[in-house]
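To the structural biology subgroup,

Please find below the input and predicted structure for Metal-nicotianamine transporter YSL6, which we are adding to the shared reference set this quarter. The sequence is reproduced verbatim from the submission form. If anyone notices a discrepancy with their own records, reply to this email rather than editing the shared folder directly, so we keep one authoritative version.
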Amino acid sequence: MVIDYKLIYPSGTATATLINSFHTPEGADVARKQVKCLGKYFTLSFLWSFFKWFFSGTGDNCGFDKFPTLGLQAYANTFYFDFSATYVGVGIICPHIVNCSVMFGAILSWGILWPYITSKAGDWYPDGLGSNDFKGLYGYKVFVAISVILGDGVYNLAKILIITGKTIYANSKTKQQLPIVSVPEEGELVEEQKLDEIFMKEGVPSWVAACGYVALAAVAVGIIPLLFPPLKWYFVLLCYLVAPALAFCNAYGAGLTDWSLASTYGKLGLFVFASWAGSNGGVMAGLAACGVMMSIVSTASDLMQDFKTGYLTASSPRSMFVSQLAGTLMGVIVAPLTFWMFWVAFDIGNPDGEYQAPMAVIYREMSLIGVQGFSALPSHCLELCCGFFAAALALNVLRDSVPLKYAQFIPIPMAIAIPFYIGAYFAVDMFVGSVILFVWERLNRKEADVYAGAIASGMICGDGIWTIPSAILALCGVNPPICMSFSST
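Predicted structure (tokenized):
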């Protein structure tokens, strides 16, 4: 895919360009300034999170994270600025259209749709249900979000498969052996030959890949059914037989468009295996099969992005592969310990808490639909889901049909769906970050282009790192001394 197909892999190419720029005098100077800037905002973000911790108390709705900056009525509908350095940083680093799409989704859902459905309590669904009862408002939030996500995923899956098919077909018509996506100019041939030589000389032998995949499949077939009994051994075997074809499609599509649709392939596996297993543990079987499929398919495109970076930086693919294995071995230790720390220290999965784990709820409900069918949906929810599924398709078609100067203002369905379940507060944070970047670009575009990513990364990392001492304090029984909260008088 890198040498014969000459696929672009935009993210991998961009990373390689950035790395190569560090090894020029100008690039090294800019890199030093960026690192200094990142460290500064990392420290400020960490200290700000530490300061906020003192006011978060042990009661409900305590701290800056629950500050009703836009008023109590807006706060009741999750419209408030929660002073999160992470989400403001995400707003700075994300494109403006993404931030605006998220805000549009927040206004559409929490400003219009959910208040309207709430007014139908006692008519569409029983009044007085709990906040996490799927027969009430909670069910509408989750299932409508699922419909938008599925609509966006189905469209992009079809789009990338069509692009891939057209590329291969057009190339076969010209009687070339493999599809050449990009052709170098004559002056670049010598450099490309040098990169090809390094890449092939240090390549990973095919027999290593084949034997490794077979060995891991054998281990998975034996072990995964012991961890998740409803996922029978033949389900796992089928996943490993089908996954390579899907992984190829995903890796090829990512090389052309930079889109990884691993979650879409995972959802397809989820529905298939959940309905296959049925009421006999179908929910767990669907979720476990989805995990297996997504792990295989996403790894293919992620590794290809890395190998494209390695190719353009004249790095050894064999060294990169060994590094990936080392990282994986570290991950099987660090990831479960991190999960355990969060699970013990925080209230994971609470719909009203800080760590809502929204995708866990969404994927579980998808699996439930695979088992129970549409009977799992609340009243009138199916009609809403169909409408939003069609709207997601229509928005994608419109974005790809109109000229770019108009398409850049059309909201992105996947981004619209995110606040449907989580709430509007993070959309406000991201929008604040987007406004900061917009103003900065108008005042000094060059400076914003150089430092915006570093500042955003520092803000995100500083706030994220604070969760480690915060979790340790919680495990040791040390609680914040102050509860800052607001209520109407």
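Summary notes: The CA atoms of residues 20 and 191 lie 14 Å apart. Confidence is low (pLDDT under 50) at residues 175-182.

Regards,
Lab coordination
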